[in-house]
Design a protein that fits this description.
About 30% of the residues lie in helices and about 20% in strands. The protein is α+β, with helices and mostly antiparallel strands. The protein binds 2'-deoxyguanosine-5'-monophosphate.
């Protein structure tokens, strides 16, 4: 799979942001939407996305405003706490591009927890 260098407005998370596709929302503010992953890999599996049009972590880090970046990471922290993950621990994953296995080309992190998650990277 190859990845465009421009943002694809037809990607599934863009459609969720436009309200064209439903999601199981867990939090939302001016800059951020978080919802449950449709194919959960752990008892808690939440996707956190910026509302801005960023393809991946590199694009977000390079081009998002300070307010967007702050809102994003504060939301991640808030969600982990609200779902009881901070005591036992959790994992944040941001897949990027082809080698990273990114399926949806709108920047997002996965918050995974609620069980021991094992090795970080499969063989
Ligand atoms: P990634 O490989 O990091 O791009 O993961 C994309 C995730 O998005 C994957 O775990 C499945 C999830 N996903 C794909 N389509 C939908 C959808 O329509 N709704 C929700 N809630 N999650 C989706």
């Amino acid at each position: 799979m190859t990845f465009a260098t421009t943002y694809d407005d037809t990607n599934i998370f863009a459609r969720i942001l436009r309200g064209e596709i439903p999601c199981d929302r867990v939090m939302e503010n001016d800059h951020v939407l978080a919802f449950r992953d449709i194919r959960p890999q752990a008892p808690v599996h939440i996707l956190v996305i910026p509302k801005g049009r960023y393809r991946d972590a590199a694009d977000f880090g390079a081009n998002a405003s300070a307010a967007e970046i702050e809102a994003f990471w504060r939301a991640v922290s808030q969600i982990a706490g609200a779902h009881g993950l901070t005591d036992r621990g959790f994992r944040i994953i941001a897949n990027a591009g082809a080698d990273g296995g990114q399926e949806v080309p709108h920047f997002h992190v996965h918050i995974l927890g609620g069980k021991s998650l094992g090795a970080m990277v499969g063989k």
